[in-house]
């Protein structure tokens, strides 16, 4: 489908002006550092829900994971199940309310500060901050690549121009308006994403002859699974891979567990709970948050596999072949080939919104971590808007450099890596902190060390996807992985979490000096 | 179900629908309840 350049540029220009205007509104409402960091702890439930969802769902989820599901099939819908059960029900009901209350009680303004204060430890603030500053640019770069690639293909703008322009616009409103600007723009972007993904689902099923006809057509394509994939356990696009096979390991341990459970350890999402005025606000946010998450991931993991039916009908090949072997190109190619002109533009705004909302939140989290949790604390001062603004600019530059250097088809992988590391290193200690009245610093410290260490060692020396890419294992031992199949497909997240949970459970009863509320309040 | 033969796949759609209903009912019932102040911590 050829899209009118003038119309597209006009709509995109209007969209950008609107987003920057909303960012400016956030800036005008930002009076003190608490506004900049946690949106004044007084955010409307609808904004919390849409901002949470729009932050969670990036171009990685739509383009990267949509493309991955086009390759591996609808088994990725288990990730949607985990996203709603873990990412909404458990996150909001079991964790969100505690995070909000404890964050307010301890006066915490960031995730590292919340975690550190729960254990009365500055070292934990620095360690958590170091993990974020080191690992988050990887995810941020993946988001930047996803956004820039789509702008490049849709608007015909050179890739580097798209990358820099995209990064520059988002950095502008995040730097000036802080979390208020981020959340207000997230809410508008979230609404656009809901419309875009809803229309995509409906148009896809209409085009393919209805729900049952489209699914049946995909169901009958099982014999067309490439031999390389069938030998690794893939059975079809509407069926689960063989239990324990390499593809089962990849789909379940990396994509489903890595992202589905990893959502609980995401700092940029946890901060959303700290922006709520009370528990009531979070209760009210739950239905909208749930609908949003199901619509985003569910549509991507349904339409992704169905693109195989479309491309088989139109060009006689599977989606991955039509996209020249690049999974990240499948969804953009499908949209540009199959959808009417107006929807191509709506979907472009959907992807722009997805990318901008996630990018703005990541930038805010990284910047406040670097500027506030690390630099300002090291200088003996607490948080200032200026320190955070400098932190945001520095982290944006680092992410752009990484985006230029990162290889092509790793959007979904980079996302899973970041979420895996956060989960393995932080989740057990974080859950212990918010659920225990007197948490154990000793257990948390060693749990975090074991989780991060286990994740890192498995990623560098065992998990083929990372170890091959990093090349360290090959340089030292002459092989890409120290373990054989299927263990070389077991995600580092599983190893890291098992280690961190085990260490935590063993050390909690052994620690005789648990943290008291006074210890927590002592740390400024 | 709806053209998908593997129950392990169509079951995911069913679970999502049930979870969505649960969230809607939970939000409705707890619309005015500020229930996070009484679970024992701080």
Automatic annotation (TrEMBL), chain A:
Q: Does the keyword Cell membrane apply?
A: yes
Q: Name the source's superkingdom.
A: Archaea
Q: Which residues cross the membrane?
A: 6-25, 46-66, 72-94, 124-151, 157-184, 191-208, 247-265, 285-307, 342-363, 383-404, 410-434, 489-508
Predominant place of localization: membrane
A GO BP term, please?
A: proline transport
| An example molecular function term from Gene Ontology annotations | proline:sodium symporter activity
An example of a Pfam family matching this protein is: SSF
Q: Which family does it belong to?
A: Belongs to the sodium:solute symporter (SSF) (TC 2.A.21) family.
* Protein name from the UniProt record: Sodium:solute symporter
Origin species, per record, is Methanocorpusculum parvum
